[in-house]
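Run folding on both entries below.
>entry_1
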Amino acid sequence: MELVPRARERELQLAVEAARIVPGDVVCDAPAGGGYLRGYLPGDIGRYLAVETAPDFIGHCPLGDGDRVIQSPLHAIDLEDHSIDVCINLAGSHHLENKGSFFREAARILKPGGRLVLADVESGTDVDRFLNGFVDAHNSMGHTGVFLSGATAGEIAACGFDIVRDTVLSFPWVFPDRGAVGVFCKLLFGLDRAEPVEVITGVEEILGLNDAPGAVNMEWSLRYITAVSQQTSEELP
């Protein structure tokens, strides 16, 4: 991410847009994964709370006044009941076999009417094929993501939420050239069994690469779900 910091810009922007953040909101980024979402939040939020499940990421989180990094598992976040306005889980839930434990924890820490944004890979998409196929084959540790399915929205609702938005969105990851695609993806996905040129081939065959003026777009997609705690849920515009 430090190599090409704006590669995933649209992915991060869409998560923030889905949250419908208003001035003064306390935003919990769980898991934060280095806190890259922080730079896309409005400047007038109340606080940013970065939940890191692994200590390696803690020192990477950018913090403003009043912000905080919390090292906690996603099923037991070190926050008080009903203490936040927004909880965003971006590309982190596919590591969870039991997603319900996180959904229940999000319901606990959100204020009445608070928003949960879940954004992750939809099962059966090209991104699923790339991660659980190509990445799994070329990362010596493997990759078996538990992606979102037809049951996900119901699981969220069963934990105390109303689903107000649920859609798969396609967007590009943007790079200066094809070489940057190969190096970025090799490092991001830990592809120790593939050279950058092999990575570029795999990306192009499975996901698609499109040349644009001064850039190369790598096709990507995620499913974005916005849910509101049931106590005072209102349809978002």
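>entry_2
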Amino acid sequence: MTTNHAIEIKCATEGDAEGISRIVIRALRETNAKDYPPEVISALVSNFSPERVACLIANRQVYVAIAHGMIIGTASLQGSVVRTVFVDPDHQGKGMGARLMDVVESLARARSITRLSLRSSITAHGFYKKLGYVPIREELHGRERTIIMEKHLAQYQVA
């Protein structure tokens, strides 16, 4: 668990599914909608109902960032793949996404994972690039363009 400036980052529980769903859908509709057509956003939104998010929590290591009792961000790790990194639009650009990624990368290092990959939206490409992820290839699923990115993790030295 991480705290800083009244923000707590903790492992998500099934009870967090509704809050995660809310911020993911809001980010898709308000932030990602600038880069994708409405039908792509609608299809993505349908994947993040509270019920579907609860299933994700059961199958991945999911983290949430909480401020003033409200979920404001989420990120998860499934094997060596970073998934579902979203920050509430009111909190974007303030370092919350980077803090969530630090937690996910620390977990990966603790599990001796040396390379992480992720599917980036067009919207988040610059964010991941700043964190050291490099584009490997692009994929097109209908009108949804994603960028496959990866990062080699430096392993901590044990003395």
